[in-house]
Please model this.
Amino acid sequence: MTNKEIKIAYQEYDSLAELDPKDRELAQASIDATAQAYAPYSKFNVGAAVLFEDGVIVKGANQENAAYPSGLCAERTALFYASASRPDKPMTAIAIAAGQNGQLLEMPATPCGACRQVMAQYQLKSGLPMKVLLVGAHKIWKFEKIDDLLPLIFDSI
Model:
């Protein structure tokens, strides 16, 4: 038997002002996207913004449904829209923000496992690492690639 260890590296920022201009723009786009959430049941508004290699940003927000499994997370809404509207353009980053009652959460919200796997699929498709920014009012976490959020990515097919 061999014991192995997986380490996750990320950067932590205290405010948007600490980010470089490109990351700040993407983070702000995710915050702005929270206003587009349709969350009448949970009141948990999530916004996501996807950055393409050419600098274009597209946004998505969570969409709830009375039949709970029929809704969709902000991350997948943004990623699927990005892929459908620009299928041949590589995605290089995604920012995710969440809020309740019109206020951004103090700490970043993390994506669910399904969203992490979808991010991994688009990272694999592009052949480029996809940076992840998780945005809170008092902390921002920056990961250099999806593997840092989903270290054992399913890619066996």
Notes: The chain has a mean pLDDT of 96. The CA atoms of residues 3 and 112 lie 27 Å apart. The chain has one domain: 11-148. Residues 11-148 form a domain with the Cytidine Deaminase; domain 2 fold (CATH 3.40.140.10).
